[in-house]
UniProtKB/TrEMBL annotation:
It comes from the Bacteria. It holds the Pfam family NAD_binding_9. It comes from Aquimarina muelleri. Residues 5-127 form the FAD-dependent urate hydroxylase HpyO/Asp monooxygenase CreE-like FAD/NAD(P)-binding domain. Transmembrane segments: none annotated. This is FAD-dependent urate hydroxylase HpyO/Asp monooxygenase CreE-like FAD/NAD(P)-binding domain-containing protein.
Amino acid sequence: MNICIIGGGASSVLILNRILKKHHEFKNTEIVIYETRPAIGPGLAYNENNGYRILNTSPNKMSIGEDKYDYVSWCLDQNKNELLRKTYGKYLEYKFLEICKELHHHNIIVNAKHEEVRDIKIQEDKVCIKAVFSNSYYNIGIIASGGIINEPFSFLQKSDRYFSFLNFLDFDKILSNNAKTVGVIGTGQSAVDVSLMLQNKGYTGKIIMFSKKGVLPKVRPDNILTDDFNEELEKLINTNKTSLHDLIKFSTSNIEFGIADEYQDWKKFIKEIEESRKSLPRWNKLMNQFTPHIIQLWSKLSEKDKKIFKLKFLETTQRLRGGIPLFSGEKILKLISNEQLNVIKDINKIEILEDGFSIHHLEGEKFEVDFIINAAGISANGVFKIINGLLKNRNVLMSEYGGIEVDIATNQLIDHNHNAIKNLYAIGYPTKGVCQFVNSIEFLKTFADRIINSIIVEKNSKLKTVSENFI
């Protein structure tokens, strides 16, 4: 049997680790990973270009294996005492090499092809991968291509004063040009990270964050969930039907959303910070209770209810789960109080100037900035660049909510007839529309486990059929 994995980020390392755990089912298997970057493991999210971006998850939730302290132990062994994304990328790279060595002992060979995948097709019972330098056929295909950088103003890339936070950010250039004003696209976690990094690097000019709604992330407050939240939620999940009405009624009775409609409501922001100071350590425990059920709840909703939930409640739920740490909230509030940071919404257009940019507000006001940093996050739609053949032959369904449709139980792709494609899987950002929260290592572990278990079931089913026909 041969397996291909398209993408060499965290999801791929988790897939390999699950194969290692079930190595007796994969003897004499060849695994090929397609990845354009030189290293396997870091991917877009945890590569060197992430500079001083910090992890926003407890390190005990970031381990690849079963030992939840594995990542922390590695950090101690490496004398790494900072919780940076690029440090976690080094850990992923280390785990990849370690897992490959162990797989080799079990006659499971892993190879990497550092070339771009241009298309994926299903030909008879094989997955055909068309890459830049080669065409290859595999028994099993796993799409783990990750997300792509969201570029709401892509034409800005032709300016040498425009940077993408996830690719490369030249602080020295910004500082050496004595920039008076820096614009930041986005007002979420990444935008907060950018603003604080600018401050830490010694930047003393003004920062203008801008997004469609102009709303900052929620500060992580405590006392969000009732003590019996988990038990009540499990009862709701275990019922035969879960309606949107049930979900909203339950959520609003147990969760204080507390998101300000207008960014000017600093009193709400200050109140959240004060609440966070009281008992911050409980936050992760409460979120660990809440998040594992989101996917199950989502999968039970009707299509009509999904649309309503996405339009009215999904963004609020995501903001609740993705709150910024207390210390970040306090620093951002200080920047605002000192009039060093401004947050605006309703941007109409951006013009490239000779020495910067002109940002046009919907109401006619203009702001001139010396540099722009894109911190708008990641999009799931990058997967469509590599599945032209699947789309053309109606082998795959696009999700209305981003990415592609997959079977929630197996992560197998769904074709136009709503049937599962038995030998083609997806994990991570390509499945965003179905799986919702796709950047959590804990969730990705679950999805990796589902994929490997499904591959084993399909393999053994074929062997049984062959055996019965032979008899």
